[in-house]
């Protein structure tokens, strides 16, 4: 009877793309094995896939393998998505070279794939994570010891798949994704040298084109320092994240010190299901979405852009439930675990109890210039919400004038003048007071407890 082998596989990346490593912790019936490796310029998804490939290759062909990974991208990709990718001849699939290799090494083997939550204290997963980071560190030492120069001499336009560092990831260069190909030796050397010079610097937001051509990221036009706030909106196939509804559009714009910096991210996503009647709300059709990326393909770039910021959204619970669900499916932590969240709907209800507090209602209440909203759109709604948020919290006033650039001086002077203006206080009329009292009474009758707003 063949033996059963348990594998824990994981990848790590210092910057995405950036220096990366992979690790596999392999437990047989009689002993344990720890293997790892790294690459100078890669992505987290590629390292996760490489860990699985190398782990399977290490094991005897007749052994039953029980594989644990904290990447839903790997687990769902090899067990579910890969069948559709083959049918469409790998069109628009990211990392096809590694997916093809993983598929090939799994052929004829008995494998049970399992997902495990990462960084949750499980000994096997933690060991695989340590090995992945060890692989990245060993690669960094190779680069610092001068092996990068040898690799540079061997590098060609498709240097990543030619495996100059000895990982033998593929036997051919024909499957290299266009967005990850490098043009010449000079570019390869420049990226390696930059990596060696300062690998500890914070990761720079990668070019959208280097990740996926369908991701649109704009760079900031204002040089402002301070905590990031991201005004965000999503469009979905429906209202129920628990019932397989999916995100189809995400838009977010950046604000620092109450100033829009000009930076934004906008992505359309293929939900792999019909949009149905929700098209009447957002105007996005199935035909429009059919060539858009899957969430798993854009998750790493989106997560890097959003993490650490304060997310501002209208009815934020709705957006965060969907985003948490999508990121967990892609093998990431819940976004709410790495971001603060501010709900402008809750703010509006607190400021205007008993009144309509939809985004359209707030636009009218605060006399914000109208935009064409025949259909809802994520980026458009995020732009409108930024105006609403600033109006609800006191207007677009800079509290940190020194943080603004010299070119923004004129606007800063206007902001200082705006501080001196007394904001109007709008008191409710008799009809509104009567409606409020009736609402409070109905609340108490329905719930059996006095309303917070009762006198």
Automatic annotation (TrEMBL):
Gene Ontology biological-process entries: DNA replication proofreading; RNA catabolic process
Assembly and binders: Monomer.
Pfam families: RNase_H, RNase_T
Compartment(s) of residence: Cytoplasm
Keyword set, alphabetical order: Cytoplasm, DNA replication, DNA-directed DNA polymerase, Endonuclease, Exonuclease, Hydrolase, Magnesium, Manganese, Metal-binding, Nuclease, Nucleotidyltransferase, Transferase
Catalytic residues in the record: 376 (proton acceptor)
Protein name according to UniProt: Ribonuclease H
SUPFAM superfamilies on file: Ribonuclease H-like
UniProt superkingdom: Bacteria
Enzyme Commission number: 3.1.26.4
Cofactor names: Mg(2+); Mn(2+)
Annotated residues for binding of Mg(2+) 2: 10, 129
Location of the RNase H type-1 domain: 1-137
Protein family according to the UniProt entry: Belongs to the RNase H family.
């Amino acid at each position: 009877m063949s033996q059963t082998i348990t594998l824990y596989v994981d990848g790590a990346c210092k910057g995405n793309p950036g220096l990366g490593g992979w690790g596999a912790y392999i437990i047989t019936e009689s002993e344990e094995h720890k293997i790892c490796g790294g690459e100078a310029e890669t992505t987290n998804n590629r390292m996760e896939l490489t860990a699985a490939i190398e782990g399977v290759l290490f094991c005897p062909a007749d052994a039953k393998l029980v594989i644990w990974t904290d990447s839903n991208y790997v687990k769902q990709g090899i067990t579910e998505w890969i069948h559709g990718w083959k049918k469409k001849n790998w069109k628009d699939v990211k990392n096809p070279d590694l997916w093809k290799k993983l598929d090939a090494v799994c052929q004829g083997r008995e494998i049970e794939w399992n997902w495990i939550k990462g960084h949750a204290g499980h000994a096997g997963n933690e060991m695989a994570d340590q090995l992945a980071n060890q692989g990245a560190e060993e690669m960094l030492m190779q680069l610092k010891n001068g092996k990068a120069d040898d690799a540079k001499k061997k590098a060609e336009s498709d240097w990543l798949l030619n495996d100059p560092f000895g990982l033998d990831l593929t036997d051919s260069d024909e499957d290299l994704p266009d967005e990850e190909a490098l043009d010449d030796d000079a570019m390869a050397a420049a990226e390696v040298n930059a990596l060696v010079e300062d690998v500890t610097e914070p990761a720079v937001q990668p070019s959208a084109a280097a990740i996926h051509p369908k991701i649109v990221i704009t760079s900031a036009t204002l040089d402002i320092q301070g905590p990031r706030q991201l005004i965000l909106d999503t469009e979905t196939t429906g209202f129920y994240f628990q019932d397989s509804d999916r995100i189809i559009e995400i838009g977010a714009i950046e604000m620092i010190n109450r100033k829009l910096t000009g930076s934004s991210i906008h992505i359309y996503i293929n939900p792999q299901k019909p949009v149905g009647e929700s098209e009447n709300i957002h105007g996005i059709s199935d035909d429009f979405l059919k060539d858009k990326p899957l969430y798993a393909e854009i998750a790493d770039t989106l997560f890097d852009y959003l993490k650490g910021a304060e997310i501002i959204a209208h009815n934020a619970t709705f957006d965060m439930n969907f985003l948490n669900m999508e990121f967990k499916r892609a093998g990431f932590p819940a976004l709410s675990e790495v971001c603060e969240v501010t709900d402008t709907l809750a703010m509006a209800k607190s400021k205007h109890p008993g009144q309509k507090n939809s985004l359209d209602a707030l636009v009218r209440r605060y006399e914000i210039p109208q935009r064409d909203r025949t259909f809802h759109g994520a980026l458009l709604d995020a732009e409108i919400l930024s105006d609403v948020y600033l109006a609800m919290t006191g207007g677009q006033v800079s509290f940190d004038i020194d943080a603004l650039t010299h070119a923004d001086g004129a606007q800063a002077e206007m902001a200082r003048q705006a501080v001196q203006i007394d904001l109007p206080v709008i008191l409710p009329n008799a009809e509104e007071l009567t409606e409020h009292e009736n609402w409070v009474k109905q609340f108490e009758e329905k719930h059996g407890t006095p309303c917070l707003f009762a006198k």
